[in-house]
Prior knowledge:
Blueprint: E1 6-9, E2 15-19, E3 22-29, E4 35-39, E5 50-53, E6 59-63, E7 73-75, E8 81-83
Amino acid sequence: MGEYGQIVTTVTGSTFYLLDGYTYSKNRQFPDGGIRYACRKRLSRKCGAFIRTSKNNIILKTNTFHNHEPPGYVFTKDGYFVKT
């Protein structure tokens, strides 16, 4: 795949993975340093979307089908990620 997303930080200090307007939370760390991120609506909306990255944050595997619209977030001028 070789795509890149973006790690974003909220004003409360939480970090998310951002790809195509959708947010993902860290779900699992692999022994090779890779990370699996699950859609943040995994439980509330039963969304099965996920991203598997390498230790260098390169996307290796995805399921980017979401059963909901992307959440509304914007970046502040301080660089934080806030919900609108």
